[in-house]
Amino acid sequence: EGVTEVQPGDHVIPCYQAECRECKFCKSGKTNLCGKVRAATGVGVMMNDRKSRFSIN
Predict the structure, then answer these.
(1) Radius of gyration of the chain (CA)
(2) Which of 30, 32, 39, 54 has its CA 20 to 30 A from that of 23?
(3) Quick check: 36 and 47 in contact, CB under 8 A?
(4) Listed residue (41, 19, 40, 39) closest to 31, CA to CA
(5) How is the chain split into domains, by residue range?
(6) So what's the pLDDT on residue 41?
(7) Where is the Alcohol dehydrogenase-like N-terminal domain (predicted)?
């Protein structure tokens, strides 16, 4: 309901956005801007092991 950008049958990748709960963004409620998580995902890797979960094959 209310979805306007994709159609039934489109391929989508839902991305869970983790939060540290410690940085100024998480404390402000703007958890989608978590500084710690963005530092890792900004380069395409996960925070815990610095490895990517996606590949182009």
Answers:
(1) 14
(2) 54
(3) yes
(4) 19
(5) 14-45
(6) 64
(7) 2-46
